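FORM 7B: Structural annotation worksheet

SECTION A. Query
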Amino acid sequence: MNISEKSNSQCFTTQPQGSFLGNNNAIVFTDEDMEVPYPDHRRPLYLEGQINDVFIRRALVDTGSSVNILPLSVLTAAGIPLSKIVQSQTNISGFWNKSEVTVDHLQVNLKVGPIRSLTKFYVVDVDVAYHALLGRPWVNKHKLVVSTYHQCVKGRIGLRPLRIPGNQAPFNKDEAHYSEAKFYTECTGAGSNPSKDFGTYLPSWTEIRDLSNEELITIVDRERKRHSEVNNHAYDHPQCSKVTLPDGRIVYRL
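SECTION B. Predicted structure
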């Protein structure tokens, strides 16, 4: 279209309304979102949540999983009757490079941050560090963006921005035997490594150089026995504990 230079007309450019809304709905992570004081951390992203009003400290967000997973031991500790499980076995691959048969699935009332919804979990009878695994079905259902680097999850509820920080103290001292506990220091106090509590003691050469073979064998057997006891402790089933909050309310925690 030609416009005469003498017509004093002006041209304006406009953006489609959808593009305008898209810019307004952008989700951005900044340095202020960082939950860890150092950038080169290797922490998984654990969120706090509630399963049927029982508080859990380790809901692992795993965008590499195509299903949500709930260990059978957590189901039992939370007091959820097994009768609610839909009996139809399914093979899930990814556990130590092998396939694991599920007890199958059920819907539970899950609350993470301000998000509460009925969530489908596949139940697996395995020993794992997490209380629940939130895979892509949960992330995509609520239109969330995950940043393991910043240790938080962002999204929107309607037009309101949503941010759920990761739990930076997901393990207590009694759970320091889990391999991922070494990435956290909060459970045993700043500056200490919780994995050291269960580490294997290695004597120095000056302590054993004058020992006989029988004495060395005794030391090895003693450490092997202690290591075995630690491994047995590592697979203790989670226990649900009763906690009274400062406001007088009584809650249950895993």
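SECTION C. Observations
Residues 175-234 form one domain. Residues 117 and 201 are 47 Å apart (CA to CA).

SECTION D. Sign-off
Analyst initials: ____
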